[in-house]
Design goal:
Structural class: mainly alpha
Order of helices and strands: HHHHHHHHHHHHHHHHHHHHH
Largest sheet: none
């Protein structure tokens, strides 16, 4: 019966396989004698069928039963036990039980590495699983270490240009990027991009994703010229394939403006940002989050150009919308709106309005404390600028004392 069930499984007739496996399993449970091995193997096969049918809770139940029996009958370090871990680990990943998946992945890796060495195919597969699970758990340092080992192993067994090797190079680059190790990530992204350009179409989605990641790493390393060239290539592809008003095209245009801003090419950045704002307003409306972000970006650029009135109009509108939406001052988006408006008012020497924004920022940061002492101290420095602008030297000295105090997080707002 189990052979017939296996035939149905191979033919994709999963429901028929499940029915036969359930019948066989019930039969083995009713029989006298030692049927533990048959129960274990049939339970595992039934788990695989349930998994294929996307009946994940049933699959989990039978995987766990079969593996528990295998540990008892054969031992934790028997290869048959270890080989049963991978499907359950995959299921745990599907249902977001990443910690359970991680435990099984490390157990499998430990065994394969000990018995077969780094370059054995099943060791490589186990290390790949560990890398994927630790990435899902955002354990970037652990994922980086495993990805480095696997990349070196794949380079030895598969070669530098094999698809599996390139995939792991990309995974390693992502781990490095998440840890802000952009110097190490950049050459890996370049290597992956060169491979994809050689083997795939220029507008292949995976190629474009790697281009975007490489552009990000280049920007973070202040390699703006190279980032601008690559981003323009990406923008041309998106404009051609998606159209100029597609969200992805607009996002890529925003990156172009950001690079121009970083290069202090403010008029060019402002022109692009105004185009983006016009498009976003027409498509999404004036209060959409993407439209508000476009307004803030343009306000920042106008501030650099000393166009304070234009900058203030945009920033005030963003703040008004966020207030109408009921956002609290400690919310990240609200703090961003308050901070840019504060900077504009200070630059324009509009001290009364600047003080109101500084006070709101200080209260919000003291309540939230999400960004730590540095953010509070930066806000205090803004207060000092306002006090100096108003000619209040007493308050300037008071704020200076607060900034130098080790208890800066505990101060009160009873000044001004």
């Amino acid at each position: 019966m189990t052979e017939l069930a296996h035939s149905h499984y191979l033919l994709g007739e999963i429901d028929e396989a499940i029915a036969l496996q359930i019948e066989a399993l019930d039969g083995y449970r009713r029989l006298d004698g030692d049927n533990a091995m048959k129960i274990m193997e049939t339970s595992f096969d039934l788990a695989c069928s349930y998994h294929e049918a996307a009946k994940l809770e049933d699959a989990r139940l039978h995987y766990e039963e079969a593996i528990s029996m295998s540990r008892s009958l054969l031992g934790d370090q028997d290869e048959k036990t270890i080989n049963k871990l991978a499907p359950l680990m995959a299921l745990y990943t599907e249902i977001d039980e990443y910690q359970l998946a991680k435990n099984l992945a490390y157990e499998s890796l430990w065994f394969m590495e000990k018995i077969h060495g780094d370059d054995y195919s099943l060791t490589q597969e186990a290390r790949r699983s560990v890398t994927i699970v630790t990435t899902s758990l955002e354990k970037w340092r652990d994922a980086e270490g495993q990805a480095k080992k696997l990349l070196a192993s794949l380079e030895r067994t598969h070669g530098m240009d094999h698809a599996d090797t390139i995939d792991m190079a990309n995974r390693l680059a992502e781990c490095l990027k998440e840890q802000k190790k952009y110097t190490a990530a950049e050459p890996l992204y370049s290597r992956v991009l060169q491979h994809k350009r050689t083997h795939l179409a220029p507008d292949d989605d995976t190629t474009l994703e790697v281009m975007a990641s490489l552009i990000f790493a280049l920007r973070e390393r202040s390699r703006f010229s190279k980032a601008a060239t690559l981003n323009q290539e990406l923008l041309d592809i998106h404009t051609r394939t998606l159209g100029p008003t597609h969200a992805t095209t607009i996002a890529t245009t925003a990156i172009k403006a950001n690079i121009l801003y970083a290069q202090e090419r403010y008029p060019e950045a402002a022109a692009l940002e105004l185009d983006i704002l016009t498009t976003q307003t027409a498509i999404l409306g004036p209060s959409d989050p993407d439209t508000l972000e476009a307004k803030e970006n343009l306000a920042h650029t106008y501030l650099k150009q000393e166009k304070y009135d234009d900058a203030a109009i945009l920033a005030e509108d963003v703040l008004r919308v966020r207030e109408e939406e009921g956002a609290e001052d400690m919310d990240e988006d609200m703090l961003s709106a308050i901070e840019i408006l504060k900077d504009i008012y200070i630059a324009a020497q509009r001290w009364d309005e600047a003080r109101k924004m500084v006070d709101r920022e200080l209260i919000a940061r003291q309540i939230g404390k999400e960004e730590g002492d540095a953010a509070v101290i930066a806000a205090l420095e803004s207060l000092k600028i306002v006090a100096k602008g108003e000619g209040d030297e007493g308050e300037v000295r008071e704020v200076e004392e607060m900034v130098s105090s080790p208890l800066v997080m505990g101060w009160g707002l009873g000044m001004g």
